[in-house]
Design a protein that fits this description.
Blueprint lengths: L3 E9 L2 E6 L2 E9 L2 H10 L4 E6 H6 L5 H10 L3 E5 L5 H9 L4 E4 L1 H5 L1 H10 L4 E8 L2 E4 L4 E6 H6 L8 E6 L11 H10 L4 E4 L5 H9 L5 E6 L1 H4 L5 H9 L1
Helix pairs in contact: 1-3, 9-11
Amino acid sequence: MTLIVFPAIDLKGGEVVRLAEGDMGRATVYGDDPAAQAMLFAEAGAEHVHVVDLDGAFAGEAKNADAVEAIVERFPGHVQLGGGIRTRAAIEGWFDRGVARIVIGTAAMEDPDLVKGAAKDFPGGIVVAVDAKGGMVATRGWAETTEVSVADMAKRFEDAGVAALLFTDVGRDGMMKGCNIDATVDLARATDIPVIASGGVRGIADIHALNVHARDGIEGVICGRAIYDGSLDLGAALAVAEK
């Protein structure tokens, strides 16, 4: 099983940004041309890109649609999109526009039947976001923390046909503290659903550590600030993942 490295493009006001611990007030801007950024990732060898409409995550509807469409049009690989996608119409609309996989978080908690129906109708296309604060699931752009544990959330979708679980340790996201390897591996071992690691990737050591556990069910890893700040070379990360 080959680990998938997903370079991330987070969108706020049409710009490429990274947040610290999911805080919209702590955004660092890295560029104003998301599609050009996606092409840089493609030139480095990336076949997948992870895109998040941050404004949409808080609003509950698409707010950076033009930027997302530009990325889909220009990026030659697979676009995985999340952020405020909470209706069947939104899901179908993004698949129609060429998005490969859709990440659903808040709606997975509040309307699980929507997710299960979409997973059935779009095989391999739906990813459930399991965002954790202190081991509990966070929703609505990480602004609210529920009383549902990460493990319990995963169990709700065991036989639903979702493509993967995207597990983010919110406290590490954008902080470059290192990926929470232990919690990610524990979740992967506790479910039959492949798990994508996210939050805190600091450098190539995180890629090596996750790659060791690919057979435990870790499908991939989201890399954001580490790439933008230069502490992780995307080409090197892709090479490690291929081994």
